[in-house]
Design brief:
This protein has about 400 residues and is of the alpha/beta class. The protein has 16 helices and 14 strands. The strands form 3 sheets. A 7-stranded mixed sheet has the order 4-10-9-8-7-5-6, with helices on both faces. Strands 1-2-3-12 form a 4-stranded mixed sheet. The chain has a 3-stranded antiparallel sheet with strand order 11-14-13. Strand 5, helix 6 and strand 6 form a beta-alpha-beta unit. It binds pyridoxal-5'-phosphate (PLP).
């Protein structure tokens, strides 16, 4: 048996479909974000990163870096095992308190990633509710889809953000237990869920609600608790899930909610029980980031300002920005080959790093560049990005909106 041919064939299929992924070898410079070194075959080159999900640059914040170093020096590196085996390190206890407070919930539970929080969190919660029907938004993230799948519960998919469809499905489910699973901010299009309407429907039909705030925590709401906090619905949502790896600049994920629910997940979730806990230094760094962003609005305001300016400058240059009201700046390409070529040209000719977004992350034919400005992308960097993109668009023969150019 030549087992290697199976792998080679699988990879060849991805290459044929222009979906084979290549990761840039990057070295970020703390204190000089978004600048980094790109280790390419010809040597090391300076580049500017335009696609990081360290949205607010907290991964280089002195308080966060300081907390990590200080805690590692004092308490060592690893957690020493699962929490069942090795107990809970104290910074993890403090982190869970901080998260419960952030979301105004009784309790929080931390996992090793946002992915695991959804996968094991949704599965465990739904499994613990007899005859639970899960109502899941059509554009939910893969981690949520896996959570729904692992629950082995019956599911219905409602059309993305379509409240009429959700209501229809809720009504058809009548009296049985139900859980609505959705994101607050969908990270590829940058659109937002109608949390008010979802809560209204959930209350009217007796459903539980589970929201993924991964792309909103730290960035929205007066203390960075997310979209539901901004929209005044957080207290109406049963489970708020988030990540420590994006706007909080660290690693890990969590759910928050009632004491009973959190204790039940702690006691039953395999993805919590059978894996090593987050190290103390990561927990302390995440707590420092959350505390800082609860008190400081500068990062949130500057972030929105930078996203707004990036959108205006790129639109004025005639680039096909996909409109939304959030910090995500998607630029439509609509073809996997040219999407990859555009990214290669940006990196090689302009020192700009943007990862191509292809199927299955987005639907075929909607391939795009996903640009994420941070508080540290200044006017000059935005102008350079627009010029580079126009150059690449012209080189690849991609359409530019000439009317926007003429108006300028
Ligand atoms: N939920 C959503 C909506 C995501 O986009 C992601 C990752 O990008 C996750 C969950 C997983 O979070 P993490 O990166 O912390 O594993």
């Amino acid at each position: 048996m030549d087992y290697q041919t199976y792998f080679a064939d699988a990879l060849a299929k991805l290459r044929d479909e222009r979906r084979y992924r290549v990761f840039a070898d990057l070295e970020r410079h703390a204190g000089r974000f978004p600048r980094a070194k790109w280790h390419c075959p010809e040597g090391a080159r300076d580049v500017v990163i335009w696609c990081s999900n360290d949205y607010l640059g907290m991964g280089q914040h002195p308080k966060v870096v300081g907390a990590m170093i200080e805690t590692a020096t004092r308490m060592g590196t690893g957690a020493g095992g699962t929490r069942n085996i090795a107990g809970t390190n104290h910074p993890l206890v403090e982190l869970e308190r901080e998260l419960a407070d952030l979301h105004g919930k009784e309790a929080a539970l931390v996992f090793t990633s946002g992915y695991v929080s959804n996968q094991t969190g949704i599965a465990t919660i739904a499994k613990l509710i007899p005859n639970c029907l899960i109502l899941s938004d059509a554009l939910n993230h893969n981690s949520m889809i896996e959570g729904v799948r692992h629950s082995n519960c019956e599911k219905r998919i409602f059309r993305h953000n379509d409240m009429g469809h959700l209501e229809e499905l809720l009504r058809a489910a009548a009296d049985r237990p139900k859980m609505i699973v959705f994101e607050s901010l969908y990270s590829m299009d940058g659109d937002v869920a109608p949390t008010q309407a979802i809560c209204d429907l959930a209350e009217r039909h007796g459903a539980m609600t589970y929201i993924d705030e991964v792309h909103a925590v730290g960035m929205y709401g007066p203390r960075g608790a997310g979209i539901a906090a901004r929209d005044g619905t957080m207290h109406r949502i049963d489970v708020v899930e988030g990540t420590l790896a994006k706007a909080f600049g660290c690693l890990g994920g969590y759910i928050t909610g009632s004491t009973q629910m959190i204790d039940a997940v702690r006691s039953y979730a395999p993805g919590f029980i059978f894996t090593t806990a987050l190290p103390p230094a990561i927990c302390a760094a995440a707590t420092a980031a959350i505390r800082h962003l609860k008190a400081s609005s500068w990062e949130r305001e500057r972030h929105q300002d930078r996203a707004g300016r990036t959108k205006s400058v790129l639109a004025a240059a005639g680039l096909p920005i996909m409109p939304n009201d959030t910090h995500i700046v998607p630029v439509f390409v609509g073809d996997p080959e040219r999407c990859k070529q555009a990214c290669d040209l940006l990196l090689e000719q302009h020192g700009i790093y943007i990862q191509p977004i292809n199927y299955p992350t987005v639907a075929k034919g909607t391939e795009r560049l996903r640009i994420t400005p941070s508080p540290y992308h200044d006017d000059a960097l935005i102008d350079e990005l627009a010029e580079a993109l126009v150059d690449v668009w012209e080189e690849l023969g991609l359409p530019l909106n000439r009317r926007a150019l003429a108006a300028e």
